Structures are given as C-alpha cells and as structure tokens.
Amino acid sequence: MSGVSGNGVTKNTSRSSKIPNNDKNGRLLEKIDDDVLLVNQIRDKLKYNKRKDSSEIRQEKSSTDGDVPIDVAKGIETGNSEEDRDSVESEDEDEEQAWKEQSEYYKNIDTKTFRQYELACDRVKQFYEEQHECQTVAYNIQARINFKTKSRARMTIWEGLEKLNKLLDESDPDTELSQIDHALQTAEAIKRDKKPRWFQLVGLIHDLGKLLYFFDSKGQWDVVGDTFPVGCKFSKRIIFPDSFKKNPDFLNRLYSNKYGIYSKNCGLDNVMLSWGHDEYMYHVAKNNSTLPKEALAMIRYHSFYPWHHENAYKYLMDDHDKEMLEAVQSFNAYDLYSKIDKQYDVDELKPYYLELIDEYFPTKVIDF
Q1: Residue 169 labeled ligand binder
Q2: What's the structural domain count of the chain?
C-alpha cells in the first residue's frame, strides 16, 4: 500500500504508535507476492515473444519476393524506405490522438438525465449508506493483503464476463441491464467512434472486476459504487456525504484532516482508494495484459467520480495524474452515456471481442 504510513494501520491516532506485527507480516507477504507476480509476468512475456518471433520467421519464409520484410504485428509491408517508416509513424500518431477526441455522438446529450441520485430508489441509497460506513483504512489494508495472498479463480476474460452476467449492480441508478449488456454497449460505442483497439477492450472489461463479488467480498459495498480516498478527509463532493458520519474514521484526528496520511501532490498512485472492482481489475490487467498506461488508468479510476467528474482531491495529484485524468474523462462519456435499452446479439459480437482479448491478454487463461 504505497502512500500509507504505519500510522494509517493502527486504530491509535498517535503518530508515535507502533505498527502491529501482523501488518509487518502482511507487507512482507505483499512484497513476496509482488516478486512472484513479476517473475510470472516476465515468463509469460518471454513465451509470447518466442511465439511471436516464430510466427514472424514463418511469415518471412513464405514471402514470395524474399526482399520485403513483413511487419507481422501491423500486418503491412514496411519495406526499408524512410517514406514507409514515416508512414507507419504517422499512423501511430493519428491513432494516439484519436482516443482523445470527444465523441460527436455525446456532445448534445442531456447529461442531467444521468446519475440522478436524489431520485434514486431506496436500494441505491441504502447501498451507499453501507459503503460509506464500512470503507475504512483498516478494511482497505486488509483487502489488499487478501488480494495479494489469496487465489480466486483461473479463467479467460470471456468466461469472466459470462460469470459476471449474474450480478445486478445495486449502486447504479441508470440501468437495470445485465453486466455483459453494459460491457458490449460501452465497447460498441467506442468502436463506433473508431477509437483504438485497446480503448475498445477497456470498454468491454472495465467492470469485470465486479467478479470480486463472487469471491471474497463482504457484500456489494466493497465491489461497486463510486470510489474515494480513505485515510484523509471525506470530500463533500462524494455522493451522500452525510452518511460518512457513521464511518469509524470520520472522527479520527489523523484521517479526518485534508491530507490525512498523504501529502500535497503525492500522486494518486500513492493514495489508497476505497477497495472495489476498479482497483481489483486494475491489478489483474496490470499483471496479465499489455494494455497501455492510459487503459490501466481508465480501469482504475473510472468510478472515482469525485475526482474526474466533481474536481475533488486535485491537491493529491501529481503531473502523471493530470495526464491520466484526460484519459479517464475520455472514457467516462462512453461508460456513462452508453447505458441505453438496446441489447446486442452476444453470439454475433463474440468472435470480434475474443480476438481483441487475445491481442492484449496473450496468456488467455489468467489468475483473477
């Protein structure tokens, strides 16, 4: 847990209190598990590169002219000329800019019809009351230790999506559709606007971390809903802010001040956000995929509405966060405004997305 000092572990608010031995053990387990994950990730990448190199050799041998090298990854003949190389670089730059452009489809949408929590049903309000009471520093430390030290399931991304389809998100006031319907709506909207393939995949898997509900969650309060930092003052810009009064950290002298256990501009990588599907899926994707940093940020922060939608907690941001904020906000429009009644034919779209998944998750069967 980067950014969380020893003072954030114990219930004693004194800065001189000692860290409990069980937390030292927990941090040691985390360090060991991080090392294991890194070794496995390197191993998987080596296997993937070996397969890729073999494929390239076969492609080159089958080339009829023998003089034109084949760029297997891009599927185009590159040649050796500077003009060809400039063309490829230009295409890469165009793709990089494409995901940043605002969707024409959502420019005139009535944003006030979404996230109307004041009109939300009792189910949604009761959910946030429980979430705001239970998301403490102590719980979040233990949740991260559990993630690092427990194994849950091994399956493919698509198998995960099918399993997730059984869940109804109690925190969402905008849709009653299934999880796979929302995943496909989001991904198809991104594909419609010709965004990069990695962006489309984010649309498909951004909520896949809700699988946590079927593993070791305490309910839905530690799986879904808007996220927020723990260990510092709860912002008034969080939904239903008054419900934090029941949180044990609310009156803690350390956790209830502006910076709490953090420091000014420490960076969100050093801030402990409330545990849920965002943080969970971020780590799964980081350990098993080749997705770019923007994609990982979209997954990790897409439910952090107090930050990317309400401009809260800006004083914790560093320069990297400013860059990632642009990516998260680009994705947010698709996540939020694609929630419509239209349902896609899953079997019809499945082949396209299976290929897309394999492109960025080379090991296919992964640890969740």
Answers
A1: yes
A2: 1
